[in-house]
What does this fold into?
Amino acid sequence: MTRFRSFIALGAACAVLAFPAFSQTVKVTPLGGIDGEFCPQDRALVFEDPNGTRVLYDPGRTVAGGTDPRLGKIDIILVSHLHGDHVGNAHNKAPNAGSCESPDMSVSDVPNSNAVNIAIAKKSKIVTGSEMPPFFAAKLKANGGNPADSMLARFGGSTTVGGVRIATVTAMHSNGVDPDYIGGDLGKAMKDAGIAGDAGLATGYVLR
It folds into this structure.
């Protein structure tokens, strides 16, 4: 994909990834549920910068955890919003488990999320916008990771990791935190009341 500018809408979120023009090739690899298919649950993409930095976008449910052999080195994880099909409340038992229409997503990732578990396994930075960084920082800390690895790319600003500059834009989509990620008495009370936590606006990303 040479000298390109692409906008990718995934699922209901319409979360945007935009890449300004490059003079070199950026490698894009989908990590879907079934190789060679585009399935309803597919969200995850890996972008490899010419300098070798690898970015995982929305691991969702089709990346088979931190040991998925398709991942390789992951330097940065981007999450558009905290719905289970994007952050990962569960994941495939293994790549190609089940079928496109009925994948085997029997491995639970709550209360951590697939994104957090992958970040810990790969020692990745999680870069998000809006109000999401404190959520990921707390999850990393609770699981023996470094809360500083959850980084903010503020709306109207940017942050640079591994030579990739990451800016954020708002995405018009809900971004509630499911009580399953909170757990305990508070999570139960929220679930009983039918409410979700607030993590701010969903986020799109512009990478340069």
